[in-house]
């Protein structure tokens, strides 16, 4: 019997995405970095951050209508309840509410850190400082927060005692905190990515004295951690944009080499886009991008819009150390 050997050439599957710079109208927010950005009901909300290095910019909440692309200032009905000016807070949304946790009002690491939790109801236009209970996290800045169901999860950041690797859960129905199991192999870090896919949280990269590219998964049902390994890893980075789209994690930009001047200077930034399919997490795939590709940046936030399946970014720090106030949308096309 003759044996025939078949040679099969696998076609490389390439991901393609399209960037668009938004042609906004109205008065945009002042350029900033280390701010919060969320999308609620087809509106993007920008809060906090810095325009000058390490100096909190203020408490004004800006709103971008994603359909008309018009900027406006969101005037609260109870301005006396809004957070004081803070930098490097973590922001996430559940239903009609934006939540703001932590951040700092001072200049140095740990200076003016807070562990307060605020909510802003975008329907009633009211701020609330929440009275929380349980295992309240220590005050921190440059941490990450993401939503899953009716819970908010907070990971890492910088405290008065140094960089953190702890994970906490906040129930928005009871305003109660509960500390989650930690994973000792995760080095304490600032500027990490934290994103939810289904019932699993993913910690991606961050700065632990050096730029990191490790990925750790936390199963919120079994309360167990797993460290993922890849044939093609993500290039190391921190303070980047990260969202989930179905089973995909999308990473945009970030700092790939820190400044030798700390927060007073600009590091080397990326404008690349990568995706990881968490259903078969073997490789990070670099996306072939088209359109109005943003300039390299870090210290910004990204948010995902369910209504049109687009990722949006606003602002950040540029390689010239100038704070940006531009807005872009991104969509995977293949």
CATH-level-4 superfamily name: Kelch-type beta propeller
Kindly report how far apart the N and C termini lie: 44 Å
| Helix-strand string | EEEEEEEEEEEEEEEEEEEEEEEEEEE
The CATH architecture classification is: 6 Propeller
Number of strands: 27
What is the name of the CATH class? Mainly Beta
And the CATH topology?
A: Neuraminidase
Provide the gyration radius in Å. 20 Å
What is the average per-residue confidence, as pLDDT, rounded to a whole number?
93
Q: What structural class do the secondary elements suggest? A: mainly beta
Low-confidence region ranges:
1-12
Largest sheet: 6 strands, mixed
What percent of the residues sit in helical stretches (DSSP H or I)? under 10%
How many domains? The number is 1
The number of helical runs is 0
User: Given the C-alpha coordinates, what overall shape results?
Assistant: globular
How much of the residues is beta strand, in percent? over 45%
Description:
It is a single chain. The chain is an all-beta fold and 334 residues long. It has one domain (16-332): 6 Propeller (Neuraminidase). The protein has strands spanning 16-21, 36-40, 43-47, 61-65, 70-74, 90-94, 97-101, 117-121, 126-129, 133-134, 144-148, 151-159, 162-171, 176-179, 193-197, 200-207, 211-219, 224-228, 241-245, 248-257, 268-277, 284-286, 288-291, 297-298, 301-305, 310-318, 323-332. Strands 1, 23, 24, 25, 26 and 27 form a six-stranded mixed sheet that branches. β15 (193-197) and β16 (200-207) form a beta hairpin. The N and C termini lie far apart (44 Å). Mean pLDDT is 93; it is low at 1-12.
């Amino acid at each position: 019997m003759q044996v025939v050997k078949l040679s099969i050439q696998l076609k490389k599957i390439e991901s393609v995405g399209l960037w668009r710079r938004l042609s906004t109208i109205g008065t945009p927010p002042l350029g900033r970095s280390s701010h919060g950005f969320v999308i609620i009901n087809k509106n993007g909300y920008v809060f906090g951050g810095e325009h000058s290095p390490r100096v909190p910019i203020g408490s004004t909440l800006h709103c971008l209508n994603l359909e008309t692309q018009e900027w406006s200032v969101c005037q609260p009905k109870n301005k006396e309840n809004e957070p004081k000016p803070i930098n490097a807070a973590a922001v996430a949304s559940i239903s009609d509410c934006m939540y703001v946790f932590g951040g700092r009002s001072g200049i140095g690491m740990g200076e003016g850190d807070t562990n307060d939790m605020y909510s802003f109801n975008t329907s009633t236009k009211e701020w609330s400082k929440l009275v929380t209970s349980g295992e309240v996290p220590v005050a921190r800045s440059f941490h990450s927060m993401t939503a899953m169901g009716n819970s908010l999860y907070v990971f890492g950041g910088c405290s008065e005692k140094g960089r953190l690797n702890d994970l906490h859960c906040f129930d928005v129905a009871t305003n109660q905190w509960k500390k989650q199991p930690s994973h000792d192999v995760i080095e304490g870090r600032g500027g990490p990515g934290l994103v939810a896919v289904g019932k699993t949280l993913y910690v991606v990269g961050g700065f632990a004295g050096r730029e990191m590219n490790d990925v750790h998964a936390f199963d919120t049902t079994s309360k167990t951690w797993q460290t993922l390994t890849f044939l093609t890893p993500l290039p190391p980075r921190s303070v980047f944009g990260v969202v989930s789209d179905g089973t995909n994690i999308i990473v945009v930009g970030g700092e790939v080499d820190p400044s030798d001047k700390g927060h007073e200077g600009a590091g080397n930034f990326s404008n690349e886009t990568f995706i990881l399919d968490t259903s078969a997490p073997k490789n990070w795939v670099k996306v072939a991008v088209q359109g109005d590709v943003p300039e390299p940046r870090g210290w910004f936030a990204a948010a995902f819009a369910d209504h049109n399946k687009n990722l949006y970014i606003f602002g950040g720090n540029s390689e010239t150390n100038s704070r940006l106030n531009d807005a872009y949308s991104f969509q995977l096309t293949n």
